[in-house]
Amino acid sequence: MDEISDMITRKLETVIRDADPYTLGHRGTAVTAFLPYAVRQEQNGRRGALDALLRVKNVTKPSHFMEPWVEPFVAALLNEEGPISAKRAAILASSHMPWVHFTNGERLVQLWASAVLAVPYTEKIGQIVTDALLKIAGSPLLPYIPSGMWLWLGKRPSLPPDCAERRWGSAEEVVRTVRVLGNVGTLTLYLLLVWSEWDYVLGLEEMCVSIREVLGGIWMGRHREDLSRRLDHILGQLDLGLEYLRQSKPGLSEDGIQRMKAEYGRLKEVLLEVDRGVTGTLIREYLRPVILFGLPTNSRG
Amino acid sequence: MSSAPEDLHARFYEDYRKVAEDYDKEFMKKYDEDLNTTLIFVRPAHRPDTRVLTWISQAGLFSAVTSAFIIQVQPELQPDPNEETAALLRVLIHKTDNTTFGGNVPTVPQWSGPPRSIVQVQAMLYASFAATLLSAFLAMLGKQWLNRYASTDMRGTAVERSQNRQRKLNGIVTWYFEHVMESLPLMLQAALLLLGWALCQYLWEIDLTVATVVLCVTAFGLAFYFFVVAAGAASGSCPYQTPGSRALRSVVSAVPPAFKYAVEHSAAINLFRSDLACCLPSTSIYNLVCSLMTILCGLPVVVLALAIDVTRLGVAMVRLLVTFTRRAYIRLFGAPSTPTHGSDQETTPMHLQCVSWILQTSQDKTVHLSTLESLATMVELDDLDPTLVADCFDIFIGCVKVVDRTAMVTQVLEPLATVSATCLLLTFSHLSVVDPSSDILGEVRRRYMMVFDPWTNTRGLPFPYTFCAIEGIFYPDRDERWLDLGGYKPSSDEQIITAHALTKFAWSEYRRIEYYGRKVPRWILRFAFHSLSMDPLPSTSVVVNCLSIIAIDLGCDIDVSSTRTTTTDERCVRVQ
Predict the structure, then answer these.
(1) Is B560 helix (H, G, I), strand (E, B) or coil?
(2) pLDDT tens digit string along B149-194?
(3) Residue A71 bridge partners (DSSP)
(4) Whole-angstrom distance between the N-terminal and C-terminal Cα of chain A?
(5) Does the distance separating the beta carbons of A4 and B551 come in below 8 Å?
(6) Rounded mean pLDDT for each run of 10 residues along chain B, 576 residues in total
(7) Do B550 and A8 touch (CB under 8 A)?
(8) Which of A237, B204, B249, B256 keeps 20 to 30 A from B303, CA to CA?
(9) Residue B544, φ and ψ in degrees, nearest 5
């Protein structure tokens, strides 16, 4: 049994190493079929199979790599009364799930969110959960994501350069959903996550509105500073040129870079504009009375 | 399959023994009577006064008749001593008194050999006689062969004795015993024809009237015989069945396709067809004349085309001969087969042959049940007779009826339906591996689709798990079935057999397409997922087989032509 499982794992690793997208692109069903056994291996402490299976997606990036009939299996793994090891294994595979094709996706998203909060955080888990979160957010299941999941971004997870979900997670509806949560910190973390030199954003206008409306407060300077620093970094990276960026993301084009420069430049402008507005307000509302009338005294008090 | 495989095999061989006894009794009776008839036709007749034929003490009725004519004609092959004596006397008298014969001077005639017609008549009579004796000889040998077949081997277990008997029966089929036995009447018929012909020719020289009568009777007999053969060939229900009618039927059935092919591919016919197509639609006489001129001028081309046809015919005949020789070779010495694994290399094929024979011979459902139960426990299916797939399918279909697009099993046949479905799955998947181009696979597929259309409701069948796999083979697009077992829990045996069969089928499907399109059908991968998702995991062999299915799709080297172990609960494919 282990012999043949190892053979499959070796085969997957070989194909991943050779970056054979043809083979992997047509073997999604086989990889899906291997998932239960790989998960079981993971639960038993043998991580090679699931690792190899998860790395497959990094090579191929098909939008729905796994078959939708994994739903009952995933639901069983994410069951609230199930062991943590099962939940962890399901979370590790969650970024591969065809969430949009699940017949009972709402319930599954709830189970998944509960499992994420129950499983100890690691960098790997953080990366996969963020990936899955953005994937779910970019689908019709967005309204069913519990607000706690957005707050979970406070753990400051990162995303790999090549992450398709980043773009879909930056759609207008997602930005609006995060904005209406009313948590500035979460919005900032969200924007820091989806802004990247590797991809352009979909909800640009909504982001501009969010920056103006939510981050326009006087006491939001720290958040604006974080965002501004992030935008500076991105624009700096984009200035390094196509050849440099292609080393990390071979699919990039010159047009794409120009588009990203324009978008992130616009966001930077909005941020500066908000900053200027805040400075003006500060001067108008606080500093001018102080200059004209002096500091208020406590004599009356 | 709750019983142990040994018990099932024992029950099967008990049934086999009973069926074999009945069959052999009928078999012996049939050929014994045939041989007796042949021997009666050539029954002993004593003609010790015959100089030439005294050594033939066992010649029969027919040979006696033939020998009578031979004796009658035999002297005409030699010079007539009476005539020679008379001539010598005439010479003596002439020497004594030369006026006795007037001017005629008698001479001693020089014998220049028998007349040509007498030689022909005698040759035919001897040929007829030899054919009669040969058939008598073969009939005697046939009796001996039958006695040897009927002799029971008293040593060994019941299984060994049954397999020995099956081996002897296989030999009878392989060595065309039936054809040899049926050639005896043909030889006698040929001898009779030769006798009639010789008689007619002989009497023609003596007296035309008598010869005409004999000729008419012989011609009538011949015409009647041909009518009987033709009638027997034309209708299977005709009582006048002879070996000749069976042969004629097989030839006639082969001729129309061959004729059609010849017409379609004949160069000469095509040439004429094209020319006639040019001239027939034309109404103008000038055009018609021109076309005919074209045909006439093209005669050398037509001759060439005919030569091409003749060459093609020759090539076709050679091919036919090669094919026949090859088939005969394979029949006698067997096709090259894959090496077998396990300890019972000899008994497994024999067991399979016993199974195959009994399914084709017996109509008893109880016997079918015990046979298929025994077959279902077999792990190795090497040397599987392809007709076994069709037999399993026939039994399965015989247990199931489809009413208003709903499939249901006939009452009291549930066990037979279940085990026949299992065997169908096993044998079909195995044959897909060993001979994917087998006509039987296509035939079974076609018949399945005629019985079960894609909209047939099969949920009521008592073996949904096995049937899901069968349905997947024939309708691979309906892969949602693995979610809809209606709460049915398959037994461990069912899981093991299904997983093993589907692994083989997956392998054959993967190999069926050329390199770049290779793919295990999606529904089989879904089956693997379904099995691997079970909690707790199914048995080791199921897991190994499911992983093998995945490995096959990923392009790993998996050998499914043989199983790794020979025990029933450990059917796994071989990992290279």
Answers:
(1) strand
(2) 877 666 777 788 888 888 888 888 888 888 888 888 888 888 889 9
(3) none
(4) 82
(5) yes
(6) 72 86 86 78 48 40 82 81 83 82 77 83 91 86 85 74 84 82 84 90 88 91 90 85 80 68 63 56 59 66 74 74 71 52 56 86 86 83 83 89 84 86 89 85 89 81 84 79 72 86 87 75 86 85 89 78 49 49
(7) yes
(8) B256
(9) -60, -45
Q: How many interface pairs between A and B have CB atoms less than 8 angstroms apart?
A: 75
The letter for the amino acid at A170 is S
Residue B151 has what DSSP assignment? Answer: P
The DSSP result for B491-556, as a single string, is: -HHHHHHHHHHHHHHHHHHHHHS-GGG----HHHHHHHHHHHT-SS---HHHHHHHHHHHHHHHT-
Task: Tell me how far CA of residue B71 lies from CA of A280, B54, B200, B210, in angstroms.
Answer: 146, 12, 16, 20
Residue in chain B nearest A77 by alpha carbon: B533
Sequential DSSP letters for B364-381: -HHHHHHHHHHHHT-S--
Token output for B139: 């009939």
Contacts of B568 (CB under 8 A, 6+ apart): B5, B377, B379, B493, B496
Looking at chain B from residue 470 to 489, which residues have their Cβ under 8 Å from any Cβ of chain A?
Answer: 482-483
Q: Are B547 and A76 inside 8 Å of each other by CB? A: no
The CA distances from residue A58 to A18, A25, A33, A162, A213, in Å, are: 13, 11, 18, 8, 37
